[in-house]
Design a protein that fits this description.
Strand content: 15-25%
CATH topology of the largest domain: Heat Shock Protein 90
Low-confidence stretches: 27-41
Structural class: alpha+beta
Number of domains: 3
CATH class of the largest domain: Alpha Beta
Helix content: 40-55%
Strand order of the largest sheet: 3-2-1-6-5-4
Radius of gyration: 54 Å
Mean pLDDT: 83
Bound molecules: adenosine-5'-triphosphate, magnesium ion
Order of helices and strands: HEEEHEEEHHEHEEHEEHHEE
Largest sheet: 6 strands, antiparallel
CATH architecture of the largest domain: 2-Layer Sandwich
Number of strands: 13
């Protein structure tokens, strides 16, 4: 601003000059008052009609006053007495008054001329533009700085968020691992409980009859001692023979229940071991037929109350498939067993008005064959549907299921035979297991 003043003084030969900045956005009403800030700083208020600033605000054009003493716009200026003549020009930016450039007293005691007035008008217009450019530049710089700060702040925030996300992900993974471990432990717990319960029964027999046998042997020995002391005749041996035959029966029971315990352990091991059977061309319909009959008659033999209707629909076009027949039979036996169990359980709950039905369908799908084994039992509820293929998962009472059937079936169908096994079910209505086997190279080589 000093440069602008110096340049103007030189151009019109004036003695003194000042730039007054106008702040039109001050809170005082602008109709009557104008707030100004003189170049030395500070703020003043002026009357709109009776001040230079007010006049400029209204007219916005250069002004020449050669007799200030007679001009009411000129009152109130502190050093009024020493001013002989005066030139003013507005500093306009987009026709808004931003300031006033005022020059006092032409050198050599002369008056300012109309030419001086025109010249100052041009200088003021150029200066206003320069001032505006400087202001814009400063604003731009400030804006750039804030932008940079904002970018840095956002980057820092993003980095924080990123870290937070990584930590959350890590925590999620840990929780997931924990859950998996807990599930496995729970399955293992169920298995252990199942085995313990199942083995405990025969072992109770074994122990009880062993204790009884020991007591009987003791009695026998005492009896013999007694008989030796007495005269022995034939009849006296009848008791001993009785004790001996009880002893024999006990030993048989011990043997029977011992074998039962052994059988349970063996079947558990067999369930868990998996097979190493050979691949052969087999008729799937026939395997299914054998499995369904075996299951049905096996269950009937164990429980005379067991009865289900079996529906069969075999697709004769599926042809022989290269499979491991023993393993596939194991799958079918388990699926039929589960189906019969479910249907029979429902029948036990609703003895009248419910007919248990098991159905088996096969279908040629071209490159695959499809097997559907369905029962109209109570279905599988949503909360356990994800678990049924887990090893050791069972809802059957201890001793009736190890929870290995479906996990082994899954392994046989999916891993060994590169097929699929799925379940469709509606709680209270039905369960249908769908097995699909590929026709070519059914068995993994
Ligand atoms: N057809 C079905 N209807 C209803 N629930 C079923 C059916 N098939 C399987 N399930 C459910 O899935 C569970 C697991 O079945 P899976 O064959 O693996 O074991 P299990 O039959 O209990 O024991 P295992 O087969 O080892 O003797 C069953 O306990 C039962 O809750
Ligand atoms: Mg089963």
């Amino acid at each position: 601003m000093q440069t602008i003043i110096r340049r103007s003084l030189r151009a019109v030969d004036a003695e003194q000059g000042v730039i007054t900045l106008i702040d039109q956005h001050a809170s005082t009403p602008m109709k009557t008052l104008v707030r100004t800030r003189v170049s030395s700083g500070g703020q003043q208020a002026f009357h709109l009609e009776q001040s230079l600033q007010g006049w400029m605000l209204l007219h916005k054009k250069p002004l020449l006053i050669n007799e200030p003493a007679n001009d009411e716009r000129f009152h109130g200026v502190a050093w009024e007495q020493s001013i002989r003549s005066l030139l003013c020009a507005p500093l306009l930016i987009k026709s808004e008054l931003k300031g006033i450039l005022t020059l006092y007293n032409k050198k050599g005691g002369q008056e300012f001329t109309a030419e001086d007035q025109r010249l100052l008008g041009i200088i003021a217009a150029q200066s206003a533009q320069v001032m505006e450019n400087a202001r814009l530049y400063k604003q731009l710089e400030q804006y750039n700085r804030t932008l940079e700060e904002k970018v840095q702040q956002r980057t820092a925030e993003l980095q924080d968020k990123n870290l937070e996300l990584t930590q959350t992900l890590q925590r999620l993974r840990e929780t997931q691992n924990q859950l998996v471990t807990q599930e496995k432990l729970a399955s293992l717990g169920q298995l252990t409980a199942g085995i313990a319960h199942e083995i405990k029964n025969p072992l109770n027999f074994v122990n009880n009859f062993a204790v009884l046998s020991i007591e009987l042997a003791k009695e026998l020995r005492e009896e013999i001692v007694r008989r030796k002391a007495k005269n022995i005749n034939e009849d006296d041996f009848t008791d001993i023979e009785e004790i001996l035959s009880t002893l024999e029966q006990n030993a048989e029971k011990i043997n029977h229940h011992g074998r039962r315990a052994d059988g349970i352990v063996k079947s558990m091991m067999q369930h868990a071991r998996g097979s190493s059977g050979q691949r052969e061309l087999a008729d799937i319909n026939q395997l299914l037929e054998e499995a369904v009959n075996l299951t049905y008659h096996g269950l009937r033999a164990n429980d005379a109350s067991f009865n289900v209707t079996i529906e069969k629909k075999y697709d004769s076009t599926i042809g022989p498939l290269s499979v491991i027949p023993q393993d596939l039979s194991r799958v079918f036996l388990n699926l039929f067993n589960n189906a019969c169990y479910a249907a029979h359980e429902k029948k036990k709950l609703h003895p009248a008005g419910f007919d248990p039905v098991i159905s088996v369908f096969t279908k040629n799908l071209g490159s695959q064959i499809e097997i559907r084994i369905r029962d109209n039992g109570n279905g599988i509820s949503q909360d356990i549907r994800d678990k049924i293929f887990n090893p050791f998962f069972t809802t059957k009472p201890a001793g009736q299921g190890a929870g290995l059937g479906l996990s082994i079936s899954h392994e046989i169908i999916v891993q060994q035979h590169r097929g699929e096994i799925e379940v469709e079910t509606e709680p209270g209505k039905f369960t249908e297991f769908v097995v699909r086997l590929p026709k070519d190279r059914s068995v993994q080589s």
